[in-house]
Amino acid sequence: MTQAKVDQPKLPLTSAIDKVTTAEFDNWFEYPMRVQPHHTDYAGIAWHGTYLTWLEEARVEYLRSIGIEFADLVALGCDLPVVELSVRYHRSLKLGIIALIKTRMLEVTGVHINWDYKIVSTDQQELYVTAQVTLVALDRERGKIMRQLPPAVKDALAKTSTSYK
After folding, report:
1. Assigned domain for 53 exists
2. Under a CB-based contact definition with an 8 Å cutoff, are residues 128 and 66 in contact?
3. Looking at the 3D structure of the chain, how many domains does it have?
4. Res 8 pLDDT > 70
């Protein structure tokens, strides 16, 4: 007995999802970076773990740009560890390439802060990575999740996040 051939739904071509428009980046923080030799493997391709460092650098610089110094958070006894992370690698970054890390806060709910990221070419035509990260405010001394964000942090985030609850 032979099975009838079933038509499978076709996914869009990779090039269709790799193209981005500048309209997608309204209100995003932009952080440029260059792929250095220490970011790569022997083939000159950025190591997958390096992207996480770039995301954190962009996030820390974004916070600095709105008046939140990470060192000040630490001095207040507050840390913002990553509790959830999702990364999609669309295209490899190679040694010497300059790219832009685009980041924005999607939502602040209580002590959870959700971030969105895209790493794109400088002309914003090539998409390398998309990612989402969730941070939680942690009392460094007690090692426990805080009940609420410190007032200065809450005020700064309220002015910039897409959705603050």
Report:
1. yes
2. no
3. 1
4. no
Instruction: Please report whether residue 74 resides in a domain.
Output: yes
Question: Burial level of 42, CB count in 10 A (0-12/13-18/19+)?
Answer: exposed
Single pTM value for the model: 0.77
Most confident of the following: 2-6, 14-18, 98-102: 98-102
Alpha carbon 113 to chain centroid, angstroms: 12
CATH number of the structural domain spanning residue 109: 3.10.129.10
pLDDT at residue 151, rounded to an integer: 81
Active site amino acids: 41
Task: Count CB-CB contacts under 10 A for residue 39.
Answer: 20
Can you list the alpha helix ranges (DSSP code H) found in 9-165? 14-18, 50-65, 70-75, 151-160
